[in-house]
Each structure stands twice: as structure tokens, then as C-alpha cells.
Write a structure and sequence with these properties.
Strands 2-3-1-4-5 form a 5-stranded antiparallel beta sheet, covered by helices on one side. Strands 6-8-9-10 form a 4-stranded antiparallel beta sheet, with no helix packed on it. A two-stranded antiparallel ribbon has the order 7-11. It is elongated and about 50 Å long. It starts with 12 loop residues before the first strand and ends with a strand. It has 2 helices and 11 strands. By secondary structure, the chain is mainly beta. The mean pLDDT is 88.
Length: 151
Amino acid sequence: MEKELKVAALRNGTVIDHIPADKLYKVVFMLHLDTCENQITIGNNLESAKIGKKGIIKISGKVFAEDETNKIALIAPNAKINIIKDFQVIEKRPLSLPDEIHEIVQCNNPNCITNHQNIPTFFQVIKDENDTMLKCHYCERLIKLEEVKIK
């Protein structure tokens, strides 16, 4: 079986792989890649044995801080983060939700003060054995991860 390279190799930078195809552009905007000056390769609707259709993002010359990449866990918890140096993977970074989330998620309570005044959103991540939810610091509304609205 012949293997075809769909996306060019990266010398140095970060590869975000196994992003569900329908979440790819949310990741792009969440990491502000739309305004990034680095060379970026984006592939979408690529075949994946694990998830059907996937997206991949390659950012040349940039290594994200862990708190930045952990934001991806909000919308693509099974994405893979690979740090590349001299064409080799030097770090495979697991994703885990941080304990607090600032300025990424919109509160889904229409009466929350963050939806009426210029106040930064702030959520605590509540984890139990069955589920993970976000709790708004201001109105205390609980939001399931699948109901999260990215700002």
C-alpha cells in the first residue's frame, strides 16, 4: 500500500492533529491564528481512521504555552499536539482542561452580567467521575462542555 503525504513536513513549530473537521476553524480563531504572522498550513476534511474526517494545523516557528494548547481541550479534547524540531517530534503534549477558563467561553445565561457589560468571562472547571462542566464565576450557571459557546 502506497502512503501519500497530504500535508508538507514541518521543520520547527507545532502540529495540532486529529481535530474534528467541524471544529477546525474554532481552534484557528481560539488560538488567534487568523492574525498570526507565522507560516501556517491548514488541512481539513482529511481522512482519519479514528474520527472519519479530521483537520490538521501546522504552525511554523511557534511553540504554544501549555495553557494555550489546553484551551483546545474545550472543543477538541482528543486532538494531538506535537512539538517539532528539525523535522522530528520532540514532544507529544497531552491536552487537559485548566482549572479556570478566562475570556474564551461565553456564558449561556442571557441574564449573566458578562452578556450585558464589558466584563471578562471567567469559569471554573468542575470535574467529577461522570462529566466535566464549566461554572460561571458571576452567575454560577453550569455549562456542559458540549454546550460551550466559544467567544
